[in-house]
């Protein structure tokens, strides 16, 4: 019995040492510029920029493969922040800037098909198959990706009005920097 425990302990030590060596040997570091660009992007993961999400778009910007003006949810304010970070000229937004929106599901029309849940990139829609679904408003980014797959058209986008919770300074000069 003691021999089996010692063999198991020795095996655990050897495997732990191998994993420790591998983590040092194969360590990869992300591009800090990509992380800074991604922090500026709105994290809607909507694909309106032509990329699968905010991280691939940030990587393309850092590599010089994409313009900084392709993010409608980030708006002109996002373009200005990216231009400031990268030392580039501020260019007009490549698409129409949209106000902040929230998906609303009509509970009486929803058939519980789960197509909206599958389309949501941030898991803001909850529900079960053949049951009514609902949107977690705190998680919804307003990307509109859930609207198109709905077979009964029970999802609508509603513009979020300005309140103390949703209002923000329009000009970067007034922006308050938060300690990270």
TrEMBL record:
<feature type="binding site">
    <location>
        <position position="150"/>
    </location>
    <ligand>
        <name>[4Fe-4S] cluster 2</name>
    </ligand>
</feature>
<keyword id="KW-0472">Membrane</keyword>
<dbReference type="GO" id="GO:0009055">
    <property type="term" value="F:electron transfer activity"/>
</dbReference>
<keyword id="KW-0997">Cell inner membrane</keyword>
<feature type="binding site">
    <location>
        <position position="120"/>
    </location>
    <ligand>
        <name>[4Fe-4S] cluster 3</name>
    </ligand>
</feature>
<keyword id="KW-0249">Electron transport</keyword>
<feature type="binding site">
    <location>
        <position position="140"/>
    </location>
    <ligand>
        <name>[4Fe-4S] cluster 3</name>
    </ligand>
</feature>
<feature type="domain" description="4Fe-4S ferredoxin-type">
    <location>
        <begin position="131"/>
        <end position="160"/>
    </location>
</feature>
<feature type="binding site">
    <location>
        <position position="54"/>
    </location>
    <ligand>
        <name>[4Fe-4S] cluster 1</name>
    </ligand>
</feature>
<feature type="domain" description="4Fe-4S ferredoxin-type">
    <location>
        <begin position="101"/>
        <end position="130"/>
    </location>
</feature>
<feature type="region of interest" description="Hydrophobic">
    <location>
        <begin position="1"/>
        <end position="23"/>
    </location>
</feature>
<keyword id="KW-1003">Cell membrane</keyword>
<comment type="similarity">
    <text>Belongs to the 4Fe4S bacterial-type ferredoxin family. RnfB subfamily.</text>
</comment>
<feature type="domain" description="4Fe-4S">
    <location>
        <begin position="29"/>
        <end position="88"/>
    </location>
</feature>
<feature type="binding site">
    <location>
        <position position="116"/>
    </location>
    <ligand>
        <name>[4Fe-4S] cluster 2</name>
    </ligand>
</feature>
<keyword id="KW-0411">Iron-sulfur</keyword>
<feature type="binding site">
    <location>
        <position position="71"/>
    </location>
    <ligand>
        <name>[4Fe-4S] cluster 1</name>
    </ligand>
</feature>
<comment type="function">
    <text>Part of a membrane-bound complex that couples electron transfer with translocation of ions across the membrane.</text>
</comment>
<feature type="binding site">
    <location>
        <position position="46"/>
    </location>
    <ligand>
        <name>[4Fe-4S] cluster 1</name>
    </ligand>
</feature>
<feature type="binding site">
    <location>
        <position position="49"/>
    </location>
    <ligand>
        <name>[4Fe-4S] cluster 1</name>
    </ligand>
</feature>
<dbReference type="GO" id="GO:0022900">
    <property type="term" value="P:electron transport chain"/>
</dbReference>
<keyword id="KW-0479">Metal-binding</keyword>
<dbReference type="Pfam" id="PF04060">
    <property type="entry name" value="FeS"/>
</dbReference>
<keyword id="KW-0677">Repeat</keyword>
<keyword id="KW-0004">4Fe-4S</keyword>
<dbReference type="InterPro" id="IPR050294">
    <property type="entry name" value="RnfB_subfamily"/>
</dbReference>
<dbReference type="InterPro" id="IPR016463">
    <property type="entry name" value="RnfB/RsxB_Proteobac"/>
</dbReference>
<feature type="binding site">
    <location>
        <position position="143"/>
    </location>
    <ligand>
        <name>[4Fe-4S] cluster 3</name>
    </ligand>
</feature>
<feature type="binding site">
    <location>
        <position position="113"/>
    </location>
    <ligand>
        <name>[4Fe-4S] cluster 2</name>
    </ligand>
</feature>
<dbReference type="InterPro" id="IPR017900">
    <property type="entry name" value="4Fe4S_Fe_S_CS"/>
</dbReference>
<dbReference type="InterPro" id="IPR010207">
    <property type="entry name" value="Elect_transpt_cplx_RnfB/RsxB"/>
</dbReference>
<keyword id="KW-0813">Transport</keyword>
<dbReference type="GO" id="GO:0005886">
    <property type="term" value="C:plasma membrane"/>
</dbReference>
<dbReference type="InterPro" id="IPR017896">
    <property type="entry name" value="4Fe4S_Fe-S-bd"/>
</dbReference>
<feature type="binding site">
    <location>
        <position position="110"/>
    </location>
    <ligand>
        <name>[4Fe-4S] cluster 2</name>
    </ligand>
</feature>
<keyword id="KW-0408">Iron</keyword>
<keyword id="KW-1278">Translocase</keyword>
<dbReference type="GO" id="GO:0051539">
    <property type="term" value="F:4 iron, 4 sulfur cluster binding"/>
</dbReference>
<protein>
    <recommendedName>
        <fullName>Ion-translocating oxidoreductase complex subunit B</fullName>
        <ecNumber>7.-.-.-</ecNumber>
    </recommendedName>
</protein>
<dbReference type="GO" id="GO:0046872">
    <property type="term" value="F:metal ion binding"/>
</dbReference>
<feature type="binding site">
    <location>
        <position position="146"/>
    </location>
    <ligand>
        <name>[4Fe-4S] cluster 3</name>
    </ligand>
</feature>
<comment type="subunit">
    <text>The complex is composed of six subunits: RnfA, RnfB, RnfC, RnfD, RnfE and RnfG.</text>
</comment>
